Amino acid sequence: MTDKTHSKTDHTSLITELATAGRLAQRKLARATDAEKADGLRAAAKVIRADAAAILAANEKDMDAGRANGLTGALLDRLKLDEDRLEAIACAIENVASLPDPVGEVIDSRTSPSGFGLERVRIPIGLIGIIYESRPNVTADAAALCLRSGNAALLRGGSEAIHSNRALHAAFTKGLAEVGLPEKAIQLMPTQDREAVGAMLKAAGLVDMIVPRGGKGLVARVQQDARVPVLAHLDGICHTYIHADANPDMAREIAVNAKMRRTGICGAMETLLIDANFPAGESVLAAIADAGCELRGDDRAQKLDSRVKTATSEDWDTEYLDAILAVSVVDDIDGAMEHIAAHSSGHTEAIITDSDDAASRFLGEVDSAIVMHNASTQFADGGEFGLGAEIGIATGRLHARGPVALEGLTTYKWQVKGSGQARP
Amino acid sequence: MTDKTHSKTDHTSLITELATAGRLAQRKLARATDAEKADGLRAAAKVIRADAAAILAANEKDMDAGRANGLTGALLDRLKLDEDRLEAIACAIENVASLPDPVGEVIDSRTSPSGFGLERVRIPIGLIGIIYESRPNVTADAAALCLRSGNAALLRGGSEAIHSNRALHAAFTKGLAEVGLPEKAIQLMPTQDREAVGAMLKAAGLVDMIVPRGGKGLVARVQQDARVPVLAHLDGICHTYIHADANPDMAREIAVNAKMRRTGICGAMETLLIDANFPAGESVLAAIADAGCELRGDDRAQKLDSRVKTATSEDWDTEYLDAILAVSVVDDIDGAMEHIAAHSSGHTEAIITDSDDAASRFLGEVDSAIVMHNASTQFADGGEFGLGAEIGIATGRLHARGPVALEGLTTYKWQVKGSGQARP
After folding, report:
1. A416 contacts chain B (CB < 8 A)
2. Partner A, chain B 59-118, Cβ-Cβ below 8 Å
3. How many C-beta neighbours within 10 Å does residue A249 have?
4. Do A398 and B411 make contact, defined as CB atoms within 8 angstroms?
5. Are B412 and B107 in contact (CB under 8 A)?
6. Which of residues 225-264 of B touch A (CB under 8 A)?
7. Alpha-carbon torsion (B67, B68, B70, B71), positive or negative
8. Quick one: which of A209, A291, A352, B204 has the most CB atoms within 10 Å?
9. Which domain holds residue A275?
């Protein structure tokens, strides 16, 4: 497989060809049992372990190219595979194999007014396009989740990881073939041409859903250009509201954790809202500042700690992904919810309070994918939610919201079980 | 309210203004209880009855204009309101009021690995755009379903029904106001400019979902131009497969019903697949032809009845919505499923058989929104499924498939109930 330059027509026909092969493989995969799919994943993990030397050699090529191209240390670290990371990839595939198969689950069951049986049954979505950046583990993670849920995948990873991705993909599909599952269920885009990605994003009817995995630039581009439904989140501007009746120790511990545990994840708190009647605002801000976080706040926040810099209007709409926090003092829960309605990205918001009434109003009225009471927004994660593994976090309104795991990779059909009914 | 010609910028700002008002009203509506929403609908029905004279006078204006513009009898009939039809509209609203409120339903409930409670709770989607043609009853039906599920609606009906729609909309929102619900929750587009529809279709982030209700031309245009998710079906190319082990009497009765009960609905059978080993193909085709249906078939179908004309390749992909049926004789269930995979529009397919194995394979492997065993495809309808009322039938893969009723007008959020958890 080598990269070629294709014309626009070529890209469209390439995607048509790949999608047609993927859809055909998916129809076979849809007939596979729970056990067959689990076996396929375990076989894939085994081949990845067996072919470790080849995969690591391929990764070394990417690392060499990355160093030659002047990739930053952080990017090189994302790209790098070693024995431990490869073992983690194999274990993650085995973990997905051990998750319950969502396909075939009966969502509901009823008898129609005219007496036939009706069941809604979970089925795979079809062919899912995954567009990602430099982390080669996504090749295996996304392939495993799609396969577990009976979907075909068309993977398009970053150019800097091309050799690693090809090696991982080859090992993964070799595992599938060993147990008789269709290799074409998991395809890797054979070219890195950007125009092929464009054709994929426009392939409505051929590709059923696109999941972009990567930075904001990638997600924004995909959302902008796609004619295929996209499951994603663009921003994680997560708020924590410390209510007047919050326990001060809990508020401090959760606020520091929500901001500082890992600042670079989408569930990290970006704005802290402090109720004007919360008595311990000073100690909360001091703890966050002491942990090494820059604070930017409004007038009232600045009165709570001298280290609070003046926030500009941009700060309320910024996902820092860094040790920076916007802080606003709000009059009451209505003020907090107004602020959230105006500035939230719909990802995750939390209230800290000992008042059940306040918690109930906040959880009921705040309209984000995840709303939390007395917990750190850093828990916004499929694994932490007990879903096993996630394909991503979605902030759209339709289909699936919040952490999207195997169930979010399914749809349903209606099965009618009649006994000869004709409609009067 | 008069129609004005707007520039492109004007249309975008008009939609922004309407959507902003609608979203604000929706936030209020989201806090309304089940009983308050039901009361609002009952009040709307009452005002429609009380204002019948004004609504019928408005409808008479539309009818006059329709006659002057040379609308066909069928179109005039769709447009027409009278006492009985208005009463049916009021009853339909009351029926929606009596349906269970989907909002607040806990979809699932679990404890996370780190010990916090997790619930997925149904919530409204937000602001839903409804684009429809000449039937004024859609104004009330769609408004009622959106309101019942806590959604705001932006309605855009056909120009030929403008006076009827305005009168119905005025009565409906008067009812909402009487019980203190926000009138702006249900808005009617104040202009009939096509460009305003275009702006609505592109208002991603302001309008959450578009439901087109009308003919194929309307749906295709909406699907083509929308950047907002669309819930719809374009075609209903429904198949019935008569398996070798079908009961001949049942097969005949269901086939005649599936085609001829009403030929113009999306659930009408358009293609009949007869197993080569089914012994009574002649009698089934004779019954359909005797009922006044034109038959177009392949060689083997032509051998079963001399009235079968030669089908062209187009016939397998045509939604006739008329007394015409495509007929193919297939070798076996695999042949039937191959034909369906190649030509189905993903709406509804049925198998007639006494074999549980064949039924189970067909229901399992055919990938349409609705799959049926021993029943007429004409049952493909939310009311017949016991869902109360439907906003439409969807053939897409995501969010909701088949008959879409109140549940399909909701999404969910995750509610986390912690006790001070910080993520390790």
Report:
1. yes
2. 110-114, 116, 118
3. 12
4. yes
5. yes
6. 229, 247, 250, 253-254, 256-258, 261
7. negative
8. A352
9. 238-384
Q: Is residue A343 part of a domain?
A: yes
Q: Both A206 and A301 in a single domain?
A: no
Q: Is A208 on the interface with B (CB under 8 A)?
A: yes
pTM: 0.93
- Residue B372 contacts A where some CB pair is shorter than 8 Å: yes
Query: Measured between alpha carbons, how far is residue A215 from residues A80, A260, B213 in Å?
Result: 18, 20, 38
Tens digits of pLDDT across chain B (424 residues) = 444 455 667 999 999 999 999 999 999 999 999 999 999 999 999 999 999 999 999 999 999 999 999 999 989 999 999 999 999 999 999 999 999 999 999 999 999 999 999 999 999 999 999 999 979 999 999 999 999 999 999 999 999 999 999 999 999 999 999 999 999 999 999 999 999 999 999 999 999 999 999 889 999 999 999 999 999 998 999 999 999 999 999 999 999 999 999 999 999 999 999 999 999 999 999 999 999 999 999 999 999 999 999 999 999 999 999 999 999 999 999 999 999 999 999 999 999 999 999 999 999 999 999 999 999 999 999 999 999 889 999 999 999 999 999 999 999 999 999 999 999 9
Closest CA in chain A for residue B267: A423
Structural domain count of chain A: 2
Does a structural domain hold residue A395? no
In this structure, what token pair is assigned to residue B370?
A: 């609705």
The pair of three-digit structure tokens given for residue B387, joined into one six-digit string: 């869902």
Distance CA A211, CA A206 (A): 15
Q: Enter the ipTM.
A: 0.94
Q: Is A180 on the interface with B (CB under 8 A)?
A: no
CATH number (domain holding residue A45): 3.40.605.10
Q: How deeply is A177 buried, as exposed, middle or buried, from its count of CB atoms within 10 A (0-12, 13-18, 19+)?
A: middle
Select the residue of A114, A126, A370 nearest B397 (Cβ to Cβ). A126
Amino acid at A96: V
